[in-house]
Design goal:
The complex is a heterodimer. Chain A is built from 18 helices and 27 strands. By secondary structure, chain A is of the alpha+beta class. The chains are: A alpha+beta, B alpha+beta. Chains A and B meet through helix 1 and helix 15 of A and helix 3, helix 4, helix 5 and helix 6 of B.
Chain lengths: 708, 158
Amino acid sequence: MPFAKDADRADTPGKCSGATSYVGDLSFDGMLEAVTVRSTIRRGVIQKITLPDLPDGYYSVDASDIPDQNQVTYFQDPCPYFAESEVKYVGQPILLIVGPDVREVCKIAHEVQIQYEEIPAIHTLDEALEGTKPPLHNEDNIYFKEDFAYGDVDRAFSQASEIFETETRTGYQEHLYLETQGVVAVPDSDRMTVYASTQGPHAMRKALAGAFGWNEEYFQVRQMPLGGGFGGKIESPFLLAGHAAFAAYKCKHPVRLIYSREEDLLATTKRHPSRVITRSALDANGKILAMDVDVVFQAGGFALSCRMVLDTGLKKATGVYHFPAARVQGRAVATNNPMAGAYRGFGGPQTFFAVETHMNALARKFNKEPLQFKADYFIKQGESTLTGGKYHFHVALPETIEEATKLADYAQRKKQLVHNGQTLRGIGQALFNFGAPFSLSTKHPLPDRYMGLLKRKDGKVEILSELVDMGQGLHTVLRKITAHALDIPMERVVYADADTDRVPEASITGASMSVVLFGRMLKDAADKLKPRLNEPGEFRVLEKIRQPSHLQWDPEKQQGDPFHSYVWGTVIAEVEVDTITLQVATRKIWTALDVGTAIDRRIVKGQIDGGIIQGLGYSLLESMPPDAMTTSLADYVIPTSLDAPPVESALIANPYSPGPYGAKCVGEPPLVGVGPAIADAVANACGVEIYQLPVSPEYLMQKMANKS
Amino acid sequence: MTTQTSFTLNGKPISTKAPLDIRLVDVLRGEFQLTGTKEGCGEGECGACMVLLNGKPTLSCLVLLGAAKDKDIITIEGLRTTPGFAILSQAFNDAGAVQCGFCTPGMIMTTYALLRDNPTPDDDAIRTAMAGNLCRCTGYTMIVEAVLLAAERRGETW
């Protein structure tokens, strides 16, 4: 067993002792502090901005201070750094106040007066579709739409003896990384260094270059240790980096911009709220002839990454099933609500909640054990994907079901009494797969991006990669892979936080692709380095990023293999519902997951435990009405140690040959099945179908009232 | 008129001229550059800014400087030189209780006080004691395991 021993993480001692510096811990001579002045309305046109008199050494910075473009050029769709005329959401940045004393800066920022002419705002996903308010984007408020289908769906529906329909809804989820967003920009005579809490150092450098109209080489982005990311430090940091850099350029001083928790909750991206209508065409025996899924994701005033999030969500929308025919269509709509963007699971939590809830409700309707009912439709190796590609590798779904049901003693627990004094008890399950990485065109060469190794004079091997350890343990895992390939102790392999001056461009870190894809490139680089390891001096081995050879993907037609590989999993949850307060407490969660080969079981367990409890928060606690009033941790409640039940997990070994030593991914998959499993458990406990996340006491009360 | 506020910080008597209505977390992080104490929320919900004030786990974002007068304050920088810290740090390492690490100094401060007052806590006692320290990465189970490990190993260290 090459990876049997858990590795000590190099970052742990400094994190325990508080010696690790995050971006907010940095300080430079002459450093100024910046505070953002934001829109206080949802939608309108700025009429007048009145600044108080600024004391000496204090500045305001706005769109007129941007050297070139007031656009985050990294995004496909427009997104300005500062609002110039129209504002589209509460919290949209309008200007900065900058100065030496942060208390004074805050005071001045509060005194800035902005007059608006308000425009009727689009408050909900339904309003965006109805078109009763002036449209925000084009005529139909749709940023992006897409559909996929195979088989004759219309014919199946016309011949069906019954059509079963469910409508599921999910709300916002805030990443709630413990470290709020932050950037420090330090100007030099002819360059700018930006220290950032970001998941994408090179992407940030490109965005800065776009805004300044300078060559990328004029910017150095240094990624500081991240106090959590979960997808939340991909999009928002572009804005902060721009803001701090514009201010540093104007004031000729280092500028620190650190969000308060209030700002972070108000103004950074969150998981897209969703509405999914799932219809299945049933024959006279209750067999599913076809499934038709209509997905709407609610984006904010700017599109940001909604194309990609919706796209991957749609490609996962038929779950672990292959039906005789299926159609999936999706739209991402514009609203004047808090901004939505990338978040662990990337569209999957919404669509898996929809499909698993639909299947579980169907099983209950037919009075069948759901795991048996669903088994008739399981994807098998060699079958085609929604997009006409192929499931190339072994489908370990049945093994995960067997292992999870055994761990949970599912059959016995299911028979136990539902009523127990004041509580109702229930057990539920959900099945999922998680495709990752998403495929890029296999017809055209990828742009030049690299993973690399530097053999140093001191005999150490340094990993040259911009991939970010945001707490998930990536650096340790990649060091372990490299050390194993080189057959040297892990201590000889080092991996510093990214510095765009030193490491080549690879990718934003996210979408569960780092180990499975880039880890393989690193292993290949190590294999090339190994025979040269004892050569004197310093040299690099770079490995160009490429996709695995089994992959076929045509992005123009959206046909082929949408993902490289699939993680398979089963999650089971047991809940107790208080019949008086209708609060749901989760007693225990069991999961079995096929991650290919686990490179480090302790790190994998950390991802599973953490992903599951984040999923539990999404399912039961975390709620953010789109009114911009949820701006404290007293209002936005995440699980504490008392809300988090024990998690028991098992790994199914199903090595994936293109991955490094057979590894797939683990970052996102544990989260996606938790919502439908908890909803199924509550449904079984209470005898009502659950079609909404979070399952709040208020929602359950309505459901129970309608039942009686 | 400037005011001097004196207190004991990590075993040393110190004084500051900072305004009395400034938060203790700002004095620690700003004037004394003790950045191991983190700010995660500024409203007493997350526990990242936990320090010991006269031995009691205290959220330094909720304490104004005036309230620290003549008190004994220990931050993670003070704790990390003690033999107890080595045991705690090793236990957090061995249990895999550290991911992004932003909550960790606060978690360690709380654990230190918990084990001092209750040397053999069970799972429930640990979860209750840690309920004021949020962690978004681990799901808490490995943190609870770290505390159990530290309890097992600490002997008479503190």
